[in-house]
Design goal:
Blueprint (H helix, E strand, L loop, with lengths): L20 H22 L21 H9 L2 H20 L3 H30 L3
Length: 130
């Protein structure tokens, strides 16, 4: 039965079984690996700042002054950020429902991308280059 343009096929259904832990782990490590390869290929010296990675979530703050303050006082932010990633990882690995996992994984990937953009912005601000 032909469907209209942009309409979902009525035959498509998400798999009903539980999401495989190995597939979830593979996707999880592929996302982190892509992030590391991206940083390594563009600015390998930034990999030294990996423990402070979650502070990049504050990189979206509107004022450069706020970014510098967040960078200099970053230990609580760093711990909170890693706790956020740990919680999201735990929930993603425990969830059995495939569509819910895919939504959480998409949120995880978006969070990584925003975090990386924030890190780049903060590094430019802290180093004084634009």
């Amino acid at each position: 039965m032909p469907s209209g343009r942009g309409a979902a096929s009525p035959d498509f259904q998400f798999p009903s079984g539980p999401a495989s832990r190995w597939v979830k782990l593979g996707l999880y490590f592929a996302a982190w690996g892509t992030l590391v390869l991206t940083v390594w290929s563009k600015t390998p010296d930034h990999l030294q700042s990996a423990p402070a990675f979650p502070v990049g979530l504050l990189g979206g703050l509107p004022q450069q002054h706020a970014i510098v303050v967040a960078w200099l006082g970053g230990l609580p932010d760093m711990i909170g950020g890693w706790m956020l990633y740990a919680l999201l990882t735990y929930v993603m690995l425990r969830i059995k429902n495939i569509p819910i996992f895919l939504v959480l994984f998409a949120m995880f990937c978006i969070l990584l991308a925003l975090n990386l953009a924030g890190c780049n912005r903060m590094m430019k601000t802290v180093s004084g280059t634009h």
